[in-house]
Amino acid sequence: MPVGAAYGDADKARRFRDAALPHLDGVYTLARYLLRDPSDAEDAVQECYLRALKHFDSYRGPAMKPWLFAILRNVCRAEFARRASSPTDPIDEVTERAEQTPLWSEAQETPESEMMRDSEASTIRRLVKALEEPFRETFVLREIHNLSYREIADVAEVPVGTVMSRLARARAMLRSAWMAEQEQSK
Amino acid sequence: MTCDEAEILLHALMDGELDAGHAREVEDHLAGCARCAAQLASYREMSNSVARAGLGYTAPPALRRRIEATLPEVRAPNRRAVLRGFAMGSAVSAIAATGLVAIVLRSDDKARIKSEIVSAHLRSLQAGHLTDVVSTDQHTVKPWFSGKLDVAPPVVDLTAQGFMLIGGRLDYVDAHAIGAIVYRRRLHVINLFVAQTASTEHRPARTESFQGFNIRSWSEGGLHYWAVSDLAADELAEFAEKFGSAMRSGTTG
Predict the structure, then answer these.
(1) Residue A86 has what pLDDT?
(2) Contact criterion met (CB < 8 Å) for A29 and B172
(3) How far apart, in whole angstroms, are the C-alpha atoms of residue A83 and residue B140?
(4) CA of B238 to nearest chain A CA: how many angstroms apart?
(5) In sequence order, what are the residues at sequence separation of 6 or more whose Cβ sits closer than 8 angstroms to the Cβ of residue B46?
(6) What's residue B190's pLDDT?
(7) A144 and B50 in contact by Cβ < 8 A?
(8) Considering the entire predicted model, what is its pTM?
(9) pLDDT by residue (tens digit) across B82-99?
(10) Which of B17, B42, B106, B115 to mutate to test the interface with A (most CBs of A within 10 A)?
């Protein structure tokens, strides 16, 4: 391999690292909300970065963060498709089971952890995770990642108007879930 | 405008996504409709709670290492980078030389940068990540940065003032390489991040707190500084002040 090519590879890796790695926490956060499982989220994020590096040469924008999010979303959709096509592990069943006896610690329904997650933050986190798709992703992209409607539309591949109505729906659902929660804890 | 329309559009209004004309229409409706106005208020409140709660996750360090391991090896500094750098010279002349190719800090980016600064601080506290160059000598730390960054950050030894210089590090904030100078006070680590800004205006120091860390930030001489630590706010302010006066008295390395 000519020296120039080797330098090009290292240069590309450096540029990729500088541009993409600072968004790792953000990408991981989105994966946690999309997949609702920490280890699935880790796998998806790693796959996302592999794909992003592969396509980095043709990257011309948009901003790096929405670009990574769009890749991650495709990875997650592939994961859902895989789960759905596996007869022993259909996605609906996984979700349903997960809702009742969750696999991840922050939503375990035992009296001790109920006290642990008493704080407002973990309540909101749990309620956001309980939102259905596509409302959950719209809400997370807007409220946690502060993406503009245009950016969300690009990530989710829908018109801006759809983003607006999904977000309105998502907020309405979250608000009533939260009010019900506060009602209960009184 | 009907309530049904307003119910959707008030979200775009509160997210700042409406043009002036539509914003006025929605506001006119809200002025005359107590029910919709109450909705907006309650959504704003919820949005604030969500922002306050900080619902983000931090990627596990093992995941970060796995991803870094998949990248082709980066050897720094290479010859070209060294030639590009400024072996000598103060930060100010370096800025003049680069013609202010700058990190522009937009106000809506501030919150994100604050969280990235704190993330970088947290990463640095993991074993073996704190310093790339270990030295209590400012004349060692400062030249180490030259060639790795467009602007070598000013390095000041504050050991006599109670803040021990322990080294320097390259870090990444807002997708840019950025210099971090590491100090220690008792058992507390202070990371001082230094980045170029587009403006040369002097911005007075202010302290914010984020995820249990204090951040003291200020701008001077075309550089923006963030000092991050778990030190108490008053001690961090003292650090910033001592750093500033040492800079002004010209004792940088």
Answers:
(1) 63
(2) no
(3) 55
(4) 30
(5) A171, A174, A175, A178
(6) 93
(7) yes
(8) 0.54
(9) 333 333 333 433 433 333
(10) B17
**ipTM here:** 0.77
Q: CB–CB of A46 and B116 under 8 A? A: no
Pairing of strands B188-196, B176-185: antiparallel
Which of A144, A165, A174 would best serve as a mutation to test chain B binding (most B beta carbons within 10 A)? Answer: A144
Helices (H), A102-159: 111-116, 120-130, 135-139, 149-156
Q: How far is residue B103's CA from residue B151's CA, in Å, rounded to a whole number?
A: 12
Cα B252 to Cα B142: distance, rounded to the nearest angstrom: 9
Cβ neighbors of A31 (< 8 A, separation 6 or more) are A40, A41, A42, A44, A45, A48, A72, A76
Closest C-alpha among B2, B6, B15 to residue B46? B15
Residue position matching structure tokens 């707190």 = B209
Taken in order B107, B110, B111, B112, the sign of the CA dihedral is positive
pLDDT tens-place string over residues B10-47: 999 999 998 888 899 999 999 999 999 999 999 999 99
In eight-state DSSP terms, residue B18 is S
User: Residue A98 has which token pair?
Assistant: 């997960």
Has residue B202 got a pLDDT over 50? yes
Contact (CB<8Å) A45/B70: no
Tokens linked to B54: 């900080």
Compute the count of residue pairs across chains A and B with CB atoms less than 8 Å apart: 119
Distance CA B253, CA B153 (A): 10
What are the chain B neighbours of A64 within 8 Å (beta carbons)?
175
* pLDDT per residue rounded down to tens, chain A (186 residues): 444 444 567 778 888 888 899 999 999 999 999 999 899 999 999 999 999 998 888 887 678 999 999 999 999 988 877 777 765 444 443 443 333 333 344 444 444 444 444 478 888 999 999 999 999 999 999 999 999 999 999 999 999 999 999 999 999 999 999 989 888 876
